[in-house]
Every structure is written in C-alpha cells, then in structure tokens.
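User: For a teaching handout, I'd like to show students what a predicted protein-ligand complex looks like in token form. I'll give you the sequence and the SMILES for 2-acetamido-2-deoxy-beta-D-glucopyranose. Please answer with just the structure.
Assistant: Understood, here is the input followed by the structure.
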Amino acid sequence: MGTFLCLILLLLFTPFSKSQPERFRRPSGGARQEYFEVGYPPSSHDPPPSCTHRILHHSFAHTIDLPPYTTPYAPPTRCPAPWSRVVLLFHARCKGEQYDRIAALWLAGVELLRTSTAEPTAAGIFWNIRKDVTKYSSLLLQPNLDLTMMLENVVNGDFTGVYHVTVTLLFYNQYSVRVPFVPCPEALNSVNPIIRSSSRSRSLLQEPGFSGVTESPADLIIPISDDGRRGFWFTVEEEKRSCSRKIRIPRNTYRAVLELYVSFHGNDEFWYSNPPNSYITANGLDTKRGNGAYREVYVTIDGQVVGWEVPFPVIFTGGINPLFWEPMVAIGAFDLPSYDIELTPFLGKVLDGKDHVFGIGVVKGISYWLVNANLHLWLDHDSTVVHANPVVHHSPETSIERQEEFKGLDGAFDIDAEKETQFTGWVITSAGNLTTTVSQGFSFKNFMKFQRNGSLKTVKQKFKAKKKVKVIDGRGESITRLKVRRRYPLRVVTNTQQFHDGTYRVVTDISHSVKEKYVSGCFVKSINNEQNSKGWMEVKGHSVLSGQASTTQNYSYVDRVTCYSRNVAAANGLIVADNSTFVCAHCEETSPPSESRNSLGVNKQGSSTCEGKYHKA
Ligand SMILES: *[C@@H]1O[C@H](CO)[C@@H](O)[C@H](O)[C@H]1NC(C)=O
Ligand SMILES: *[C@@H]1O[C@H](CO)[C@@H](O)[C@H](O)[C@H]1NC(C)=O
Ligand SMILES: *[C@@H]1O[C@H](CO)[C@@H](O)[C@H](O)[C@H]1NC(C)=O
Ligand SMILES: *[C@@H]1O[C@H](CO)[C@@H](O)[C@H](O)[C@H]1NC(C)=O
C-alpha cells in the first residue's frame, strides 16, 4: 500500500542516560502483586466472551537493537464474524530489576495498543490491560496478517527483569447485556445514511458497546507508519523533521478519521517541565532537556497541516518518583491515549486515485517522540467514486506567547498557546450530498517557577480542547452531531536537596487529571479521572534508596445508563482503600432515595437519573 518515507532513520535509544535526572528505578522489595490502571469498565463487570483467542505469547529479554517480535495472525475459526465487540487483553509479568519500557502492538502495521511497562520487584509483579478494539474489526477479520510487538529491553548483570507478555482477544458475537440498554430516540433516527450491504458493517447503534460506540467500525484502516524493521513507529528527533508515508485512498471513501498514537521519551519525556534554552545556556547547564514547555503534534497531507494535538502528559512508572506508581500506575501509563482527527473535510484532496503524502511532526520536539497513525476509512459500497470538495478552510497558526524572567537558577516562565479552526467539506455519496464541518480549538498554559537556587521547581499546566463535528445532508438536515470537550491539568512541585555523599532527597507533590465529555446525539459520556501523589525519596544516580509515597485516585464514568466511580488510595506500594460503586453519588444527594434504582444506578424506566448532574463543568 504505497511507499514509506521517514526522513530520520537514526534510532537513538537511551534507556538510562545521565541526562535524565527524573527517571528512576524503584528499590527492590515487596511481595508479588498486581499492578493496574484505573478505568472503565472494571474487569469484574465484563460479561463472558463468545470465544477467546490467544494471539501473542512472548518473553522480552535482551531485545535492545533487535527487530520487533512478529507472529502470524488469523481470526478465530470458532467464532466467526460478525462480532458485536472485541476486547484486547494484554497480560504481562516481570520479576527482578528493570526500568520502565515503552511498547506497542501492531496488526499489519496498524497500532492496536501503545503501552509502557511497570518496574518489577524481586518477588515479581503482573498486570492486565483491557482495551476495546472493536474499531479495528475490519482488520481483525482478515487472515494472514502479521502481529508485531516492540518492547526494547536490556538484560545484563544489573538489569534482570524479563517481560513475559500474553495477548488474547475476547470476541463477542452477541452483545451479552449486563447493563440495561436504553434506546436513544434521536440516535435511532440518525442511523448512518449509507445503506450497507454486508452484515458485518451494519450500524452498531442497536448494539451499544461499553465504550459507547455509536458508529460502525471503519471499512478499511491504513497505517501511516514506518516500515516495521524497528517497530512501525516513526522516531522524531527534532522539530524540523517530519515523518511521512505515501498512500493511496479508495475513491469511494466518504469518511476519514486519523487516529494518532504518540509517546515522548529521552529529553522530551517530561517536556512539560523543560525550561527554555536561554536558561540552560545562561547557567551553563549540561542538560539537553530544553526547548521550553510547549509541544504540539501535527498531521499533514501533501505538506498542508490538517490536524494537531497537544498530548496528555503520561508519566511512566519510573517517572518523577517511581514510588507513586505502585501498584496503581499513572493515568494512561498502561493504555496510552490515542487521538482522533476528523479528516472528512479534506477528502477532496485525496480521492483522485493518486498517491498522497501523510506526514506527522512535533512542534518544538526534541529527541525523541514515537509517533504513527491509523487512517480509518469508511467506504460507500454502492458507488465506486465519491466526489468531494473542501468548502471552508480556516486554519491559522497556533498563537504562542512566551514570557521568561530569570536570574541565575531562579526564574519564572510562562507559555500561552491557543488555536481555533474550522474546516468544511462535502462528499457526494450514494446517499446524497453530505457536508461535514469540524470546528475545534484549544487553549494551553504552562507556568514554571524555579526558586531557592533552582532546587524548588513548580510546574502548572492547563489544557482545554473542544471539538464539534456536524454532518448535514443535501436538505440541510443534521445527520451527525458530535461534541467533545477535554481538559487535562497538571501540577508538579519538586523540592530537591543535595548531600555531600552524592545522594539527594526529592520531595514531590503531583496532581494530574483528565476530564472528558463526549456528546453524540443523545449519547453522553463523561469521564473524570484525577490522581494526586505526595512523597519523598532518597536517590543515588538513578536508583531510589528509600522513600515514602501516597497516591489517591478518583475516577468516574457516567453515560446515559451507567454511573461508575472508583476511589483508590495507595501508600508505600500497597492499596489502603479501594471503593467502587455503580450508584451515582451526586444523584443520591439530589434525588430522594427510591426503590426504583438498582445497583447500576438505573431506574426502572431505564433512564439514568444522574445524567448531567455529575459534572458541573
Ligand atoms: C453539497 O452541499 C454543499 C452545502 O451543503 C454545497 O455547497 C455544495 O455545492 C453541494 N455539492 C454539490 C455537488 O451539489
Ligand atoms: C546555586 O547553585 C549553584 C550550582 O549548584 C552553586 O554553584 C551556587 O553556589 C548556588 N548559589 C547559592 C546562592 O546557593
Ligand atoms: C478523592 O476523594 C477523596 C474523598 O472525597 C479526597 O479526599 C481526595 O483528595 C480525592 N483525590 C483526588 C485525587 O481527587
Ligand atoms: C472508602 O470508604 C470508606 C468507608 O466508607 C471510607 O472510610 C474511606 O475514606 C473511603 N476511601 C476512599 C479512598 O474514598
């Protein structure tokens, strides 16, 4: 499917260089235990699948500088499609001494999961990640594909931890209903306008998934990725170099969404706390963690910017203070978020049956970022050529303002960035003229303050984004209306005290969160996920000698029929409290106690009593 082109082929892998003062190895000790990332649905709530299918089983020992592990994939013969839902279950275990590692799983070059590992203990740790992968169904249906996993690890005299990984797919032929399904009157009317011939691509509107899938999976997914010799991700080492791939798109495509996967490492692992280069130079510091604290990942088609994202700051398990992330890892560390970029308004550029260059780059990025994307395409089965044209294209540059003031090692740095854009384009399909308008914008603020001769560092970051996608038909009637709002604030305060024997003591206080609201027709989903950590550690080099830490996490998931919340508290590597409920706490306060609500927080009429009350934002 076309040729790939990556301007930088140099893969620089720096597992533990001296210039990474904020990446550490946890002390050994502790009993064998399970690590986890808090999310929805809890595994106890998953119904039994129609069949399970093990697709990968491999041990990652000294894999650095080796090609990724590849194994053949075929769908299960025991439960043929159509599937109403597919869940990927990633199981890993490890024992010994090891750093955290980045990893990814690709099927025919299409990324299914970006993940990072937890740092093991002498007694051993294990964890399970569940991810709904129904959106990749068109690919999961195909036999004779290669499944590839990259996890570069170092095993030698010092580092003994081998990561043993098993990946299983759980297929559901018929959605096993546990949560009562409440049909959405509006959604039932706004069924996908394209009449589909094949049964597999029927609308999922009548079969709600846990993730609230309100649309059918794409018919075709094309990877925008590297050639796979060193994993399918592109390595971005600097701002000026973008990576790209030439692809050809079927001429009957009527919808396109690009799903972007990113992770940041090396000198940009903590990009949100990088000072400007002027500060580093003036103080004669030898760190390469510079370029200020703003990054933006962008996507281009034939050189024109068509999408962008300021990524959520995922903290890996060795990051900032490894004692914070055991046994509950930081938000997104096991299941890194991917970002959807609606490209339908740009179809007019690419439906000519010719090759087009899709590129990905990082504004202000320094070594190194691992980026690639999946291009999800929906095809009009009743026509061979869809005509498309852009109508409005308003995309100014991101406005970025920077302020800095410093004297010696103390100072204050401010960055404000924002962007508002609108794109409109139409496609003539067998169902008529569909016009898609995407309006989106974000605001980003980063404030950094260094005090007490640079030993007290405060980072406060705010990010807010909104996106609206509206599709109307030829008569001007609304077909789709999607609204997404996201916020991810972050605050990190670090106080470092250095001792004569070369050890130092770091006291840290972190809070970070994700608040997300997704509205599509009458389907509403909101997630509020917040984590606070406090503690100290004594460090020599990159090894933590001792310390104390506590983390609390409050998670809530609310949609039309479900209210789920979980509050967990961990201290010094152990869970000290773990409360979860399917009752809407805030509803309990606002509505009189009634018999009509069952344990799922749903009343007998079948509509949620708490919709819109949980999140005031
Ligand atoms: C499709 O609809 C848009 C507006 O909704 C209009 O501007 C465009 O001309 C239409 N295209 C055709 C080929 O009629
Ligand atoms: C500040 O730190 C620098 C480098 O660590 C050191 O050389 C200098 O003496 C310190 N200044 C004060 C006032 O402590
Ligand atoms: C979670 O909720 C508890 C009790 O309501 C509160 O004490 C704690 O600070 C919260 N933690 C976070 C991370 O929001
Ligand atoms: C969990 O519930 C118990 C009892 O209701 C309460 O004492 C504790 O503070 C709660 N913990 C969290 C983390 O919310």
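For the handout, you might add this sentence: Residues 5-176+196-610 form one domain.
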